[in-house]
Specification:
This protein is an all-alpha fold. Helix content is 79%, strand content 0%. The protein has a single domain, classed as de novo design (two linked rop proteins), CATH 1.20.1440.
Length: 188
Amino acid sequence: MIIAGIVAVVALALGLAIIVLYNALVRGRNLAEEAWSGINVQLRRRHDLVPSLISAVQGYAVHEKDVLSAVAKAREAGMKAAGGSAHDVGEAEKGLSVALGRLLAVAEAYPELKANENFLQLQRSLTELENDIQMARRYYNGAARDQNNRVMQFPGNLVASRFGFEKMEYFELSDESEAAVPQGFPVK
């Protein structure tokens, strides 16, 4: 009778531990998914701003069709990658950052464009968006890190593997120079 009671208490404790670990994994996954959604919102805002920026530059820099075309193609690639893995989205967005950097560098050669209030407002908006994207990226990576810790650490790894929880990808830039604000962005 005592042994049966001990076994029942141990089984109950084990069952409760599994429930607590499972719920922590679900909570962590939901938090990371919400954080990823925040990144997607910021990237969509960035993609929506690009046509206005191209239009503003196009009126002044008519001889820069290759740069304008590269920005448009990079935006399209970013929009196609949306909803994909963190790695795929990151690669597409790096391409857009490089193209936008080239576009803003071209704008430096046109003094009347640099003085245009509409262009300056678009440039400020883009800078704010880049800052918002970085904040959203840090938040997501923190949530992914916490979830990865739950998935990889004992005893959570036993529950995670049993219920199909996997390690999450970080949304990172592959090289520190790419993490910097592209050339041509004003720094506040």
